[in-house]
From TrEMBL:
Pathway: Isoprenoid biosynthesis; isopentenyl diphosphate biosynthesis via DXP pathway; isopentenyl diphosphate from 1-deoxy-D-xylulose 5-phosphate: step 2/6. It catalyses: 2-C-methyl-D-erythritol 4-phosphate + CTP + H(+) = 4-CDP-2-C-methyl-D-erythritol + diphosphate. The record marks R189, K242 as: Positions MEP for the nucleophilic attack. Catalyzes the formation of 4-diphosphocytidyl-2-C-methyl-D-erythritol from CTP and 2-C-methyl-D-erythritol 4-phosphate (MEP). The keyword Transferase applies. It is an enzyme of class 2 (transferase). Belongs to the IspD/TarI cytidylyltransferase family. IspD subfamily. This is 2-C-methyl-D-erythritol 4-phosphate cytidylyltransferase. Pfam families: IspD. Keywords: Isoprene biosynthesis, Nucleotidyltransferase, Transferase. The gene is ispD.
Length: 265
């Protein structure tokens, strides 16, 4: 646990203790859209598994004191040894990642199940929980911190979001792949946002959402919306894109190359 999460003996007795932050990283998907091979989270980016990049990205925030990785159901041992190999297991030595604890738990059939299993492993003292896709390995620390700050300021759920470049059409999905699909609506682009992770939550709200919402969702914040609670956005970042298709791997390696040039990352 990082120092800021602990009550400071030197501080005034009335100083509020800032809620400790845990991050759950679902990494149990197969990633079929990326083509055949290892589970997506274990694919390499510049020689390092995507998951390790994602863990580094979250641990880079000095506010995050616990990271729970949700591994493929048959792969917790492999993931644990990967974290060990990158010196990220147990209590990491103090260094540029700060002092962050790590845990690995087996995942479920769906992303939602995997997140619930990770959330169950977060001890109750963590008042803020982030959920971050292993498939977004390059999220900048400033985005992570902006999400945490908004939750600590009182929002029950926070999502990083970006305006859209493309106009979006709602269609009647075809039953056969490639068949023409009737367009049924064109939502006003200026009111649309593409949302990313980490999404941040007041812990009790996220637990309640997972207990209450049973239908399939594609992000955690929409479960909170279904509870009727407010969800707010903070600015997302173009480097927090999700690695989904083969071209995304090329883009991710280009981003890493640019970072190395710019700041020696
Ligand atoms: O499939 P999609 O790209 O939406 O997956 C988003 C994230 O959820 C990925 O990091 C993936 O590993 C994770 N996931 C999971 N358990 C599943 C399916 C997806 O942890 N059963």
């Amino acid at each position: 646990m990082s120092d800021e999460s602990r009550p400071s003996p030197a501080g005034p007795p009335s100083a509020p203790v800032r809620a400790p932050v845990a991050a759950v990283i679902p990494a149990a998907g197969r990633g079929v859209r990326l083509g055949p091979g290892a589970p997506k989270a274990l694919r390499a980016l510049n020689g390092t598994p995507m998951l390790i990049h994602a863990v580094h990205a979250l641990a880079a925030s000095r506010h995050v004191s616990l990271v729970v990785v949700v591994a493929p159901a048959d792969g917790p041992a492999e993931v644990k040894s990967l974290l060990d190999a990158h010196a990220l297991s147990g209590s990491a030595p103090s260094g540029s990642w700060g002092s962050t604890d790590f845990q690995v738990v087996p995942g479920g059939e769906t992303r939602q199940e995997s997140v619930a299993l990770g959330l169950a492993a977060v001890p109750p003292e963590y008042g803020v929980v982030l959920v971050h896709d292993a498939a977004r390995p390059l999220v900048p620390v400033d985005t992570v911190d902006a999400v945490i700050e908004a939750v600590r300021d009182g929002a029950p759920a926070v999502v990083p979001a970006l305006p859209l470049a493309d106009t979006v059409k709602e269609v009647e999905p075809a039953t056969e792949p490639g068949a023409p699909e009737p367009v049924v609506a064109t939502p006003e682009r200026a009111r649309l946002r593409a949302v990313q992770t980490p999404q941040g939550f007041d812990r009790a709200t996220l637990v309640r959402a997972h207990e209450t919402v049973t239908e399939d969702v594609t992000d955690d914040a929409s479960m909170v919306e279904q509870l009727g609670l407010p969800v707010v956005t903070v600015p997302g970042h173009e480097e927090a894109f999700k690695v989904t298709r083969p071209l995304d791997l090329v883009l991710a390696e280009a981003v890493l190359a640019r970072r190395r040039l710019n700041d020696g990352y």
